Amino acid sequence: HQALPDMLLFASGGLKGASDLAKSIALGATLGGMAGLFLKAAVQSTEAVLETISIIERELCIIMFASGAGDLNALKKTPLIQV
């Protein structure tokens, strides 16, 4: 993918988990919105929202480790994530 101008790129609409978030970041997104996932958790409880955050963080760390990305900037440069 080509270099984007110095601006924020927000990926939203259909992101269902850490793998979708990782793909969005690898394609150049700065932020990823997962409103549906968090709204479902919010209906249950604050603890459910915190658990959702924990799961996404853990899965994203695994994806980054598997792709050799030490941070989110490295994830943007990895050729290993296929969309």
Describe the structure in brief:
The chain is mainly α and 83 residues long.
Describe the protein in words.
- This protein has helices at 18-26, 35-44, 46-67, 72-77; strands at 10-11, 31-32.
- The longest helix is centred in the last third of the chain and has 22 residues, at 46-67.
- α1 (18-26) packs across α3 (46-67) and α2 runs antiparallel to α3 (46-67).
- A two-stranded parallel ribbon has the order 1-2.
- β1 (10-11), α1 (18-26) and β2 form a beta-alpha-beta unit.
- With 83 residues, it is mainly alpha-helical.
- The chain contains four helices and two strands.
- The protein is globular.
Structural class: mainly alpha
Biggest sheet overview: 2 strands, parallel
Our Rg estimate from Cα atoms comes to: 13 Å
The coarse overall form would be: globular
Stretches where pLDDT is under 50 for at least 5 consecutive residues are: none
Reading side by side through the largest sheet, how are the strands ordered? 1-2
Helices, by number, come to: 4
Mean pLDDT across the residues is 87
